[in-house]
Amino acid sequence: MSYRNASLPPKERVQDLLSKMTRAEKIGQLVQPFGWKCYRKLEDGTVEVTEAFKEQLKAGGVGSLYGALRADPWTGVTLETGLSPEQGAEAVNTIQRYAIEQTRLGIPILFGEECSHGHMAIGATVFPVPLTIGSTWNPALFKEMCRAVAVETRAQGGATTYSPVLDVVRDPRWGRTEENFGEDPVLVAEMGVAAVEGLQGDDLASESSVMATLKHYTAYGSSEGGRNGAPAHIGLRELHEVDLYPFRKAVEVGAGSVMPAYNEIDGVPCTSNRYLLHDVLREQWGFDGFVITDCGAINMLVNGHNTAATGEEAVAASLKAGVEMEMSGEMLSNYADLAIEQGWMDEADLDLAVGRVLEMKFRLGLFERPYVDAKHAKAVIGQPEHKQLARRVAAEGAVLLKNERATLPLTRKISKLAVIGPNAHAPYHQLGDYTSPQRREQIVTVLDGLREKLSAEQTEILYAPGCRVRGEDRDGFPLAMEQAIKADAIVVVVGGSSARDFGEGAIDLRTGASNVTDNSWNDMECGEGIDRTTLYLTGVQLELVQELRRLGKPLIVVYINGRPITEPWIDEHADAILEAWYPGQEGGHAIADILFGDVNPSGKLSVSIPKEVGQLPVYYHSRRTRGKRYLETDLSPRYPFGYGLSYTTFEYRNLKVEPAVIDTTGEAVITVQVTNTGTVAGAEIVQLYVSDLAASVTRPEKALKRFEKIELEPGETREVAFLINREQLELIGLDLQPVVEPGAFDIIVGPNSVEGLVGRLTVE
User: Which positions carry the signal peptide feature in this UniProt record (predicted)?
Assistant: First the structure.
């Protein structure tokens, strides 16, 4: 059979296999059931496939399984009931072997896994969340991290992952802000390219590569009111210039899969939007992978968007728009055949979708190497090198927002240090959403990190949580104050939590998102399904910080959270503020490294932090026509995009634009000298913004176009050069086509979005 001949091109193998398939077998390839429901763990740690799964295979087959190794409250898989890395690999082999040996054509299953910030399986490394990664401004570091994630995931048989998330954040009240890199399309695009290159490697068929899935396509981060999946009110020009841009750049480097967003744009759900899924994605960009829906998205066309009256109509609308696989739903298996019989779509529509799925299976090498080595999985998953990498990412992604009177770094000779707050010693609170259950010894809290950091010193560490993230209970205040009174300095760790609630009714069983609950044990205030109306600290955390401030001791606030926090009182009264986001399993070490100066903070904000919620939206590249001010305040954020302090200082000099005049197809080189004018080594993120002074359409005041992270010793000067060409100067014109218009452009180079040297470039 030609389709088994590895020497033939994938497309030729696809055509041979398609010619042998029944309609039921074709539909089966587009179906993706929940993987954790397809097997049962036995007492000896092995697994057996369920009867229900066997029946599905008999009925026509299963193309893919979602989250076979996923462990969390949705799946019900815990540390006690779950599988070790070695057992997980063996389980996937068992399922794969049954599917290949017990079906007529022996088509291997594509195992899809969640890997937003590490494989969501027991034992895998938990890296910082994407919002932390965005704050590193270091795509090369993120690419290295993605290689580690790919190694751990493929070792257990996962061949595709549902990441990276390339949404551009507009309203940080959105609970999924933590899953995104930030508010700027160029920064998001750079991280997206790094993710694709890191996850997919040089060869998709490699045992260290997984297929990337770009999501959520598109404008998912532009939802009305910051509510998850709400409509996106966005025009075509902005859609192409901002929200589509990261997806286009990631497609250009070969991303294998794309996931449409749940939301609608101007009344058209992304799941059935042919303009997005076919005209733009395939015709304009040349995408040659396959499109998979988000969980339950086709059903939403009937029950949610109500753009289809029946299941068969919804299925046809999705497939004809450009969808090839349905994530964890039953619409295709129930209605695809009926949709063809009733004339809603043709057999050719089905063949096109199936062919694209099969081609990616061939490119992934699943027909030649469907099984994995369980011993290899045991060796590479959670290895020490990956933990060290997680620590480095967490340290580079932490942002120093305030440091009055050089409060930080702390001296190791400090006699007594108070560590206070609900997030100082709460392992799950620092991990973020989409995290598997963790053994306690795998997680380094801030308290753990500080204790280890000072283990050889005479410092006494005094700890008290004080309160919880949510709730009005102040019973912990007296102990917190008692400990703080005895200390020379106070580190108070507050913020949020995306630790999923195990309580009844807390999980949307259809999509896996969290539901808002009032369960007394629930501290979750961020994550998928947890949107907010404010950005204040929840519960009585602010009161705790205020009580500690009254002691008059040096007060360092550490935020651990998944979205920006707006607390003007803390901004004014804290001596130092460190924003760590969700720093992952090694977060405690990374934070301790920064607090005591073993690491000089270099992170910069990838989202603007407003003074108050009433300013939203407050992203930096809003258009010139946005207005001037409110009655109560202006439009400036508390901390601007690109902002972050260091333990040293940097000076920018000698900005040059050469040549200063180019034509519409030309290019210019921008150079600037950056000097470390402080006393310690440090890293600086040099940022280049372009301001189009006059254009045929309204432009942003400025827009990030280039950036580079450099390291400088005290007194060292380095010249940084950026190339500016058509891509950095073009806009989407009146005819909705990209164009470089003649005119004057200001080139701004500096440390953040509000400071910098200005040069002039003229396009003739």
Answer: none
